[in-house]
Amino acid sequence: MTGLRGLAWLLALQSIGELLARGFSLPFPGPVIGMLLLLLALRAPVVREPVAACASFLLSHLSLLFVPVGVGVMTHLGLISQYGVRMLIVIVLSTWIGLAVTALTLRLFREKSDAELR
Amino acid sequence: MPNFVELWVYLSSTPLFGLTATLVVYVLAQAVYARLQQAPWANPVLWTVLAIASVLLATGVSYPTYFAGAQFIHFLLGPAVVALAWPLWERRAALALHWRALLLAALAGGLAASGSALALGWAAGLPLDVVLSLAPKSVTAPVAMGIADKIGGIPALAAVFAVITGMVGALSAKYLFAALRIPTDPAGWMARGFSLGTAAHGIGAARALQVNADAGAYAGLALGLQVVLASLLIPLAFRLF
Q1: Which of A106, B99, B141, B223 could form a disulfide with B105 if both were Cys (CB 3.0 to 4.6 A apart)?
Q2: pTM, whole model, 2 decimals?
């Protein structure tokens, strides 16, 4: 029951996010606004306890949620047979560049902010 | 004697089929993944997608028919993104301390991932609409579709690129981080998780969550930040140039 109340909170905040995004033509998707709202709402214990139970369950199975979109790869077989290898190389290289730049930037500047504290 | 072909045609056309297939295959793939001590190459999303797509292609079931059932799982992406606030809340003290470095890393990493994808895609001679669909590939799939639509890419293709990007990140990040000598101490887990969420969105975050709780939380933060930054900056960059 606690988990169900948590899901109700998540859906309610997502709905408010969707309404705000649509109503004010914000460039962010509704769920992201919902996430920011939840971050504020978690101060209240009435939100915190049920959301904790539901969020842990949902997030521990996060990768399952990408399967339906991933299967959509089958609708692009023509493009894949023509450009598949090149597209894969581009994706692999740019993903590595993104990972490396993020990790190294964070290492560099995080150490600085630690040093400033001393 | 029932006609099995007829029964298959009946079952495969109901939403029950897409939903059941997705769950059952994923549960099996997850069990194999656990048995193999979560080896990156045994990634359950990768093998579930390959298995289901092969079955659909072999039996001639269309993707929209499959999606009619699978959409119930797809739908949960929304509440799952909202739920990412939870691991952040748990680490609010560390966030208050490191928010400048995190924001800078998100900007630099997102720019590097998007920019290099555009440059490499163009250099590889891919068609323009395919190159444009590569731009939002490090953002979680539903958002990538919206961005691709705004800048002249193909939304469905952008979603597939995003999923492949996530898998590449989940599969290879461990080795890349080892080569870059990112340690496995608390600061190292923060960097590993945060960059997985930045460059490989939810699938990278799912991998990070399985490996280390701190890494998972920062991956969630990074994925949320990337959604906000990319939905603002990518369309803006294309309007300016």
Answers
A1: A106
A2: 0.84
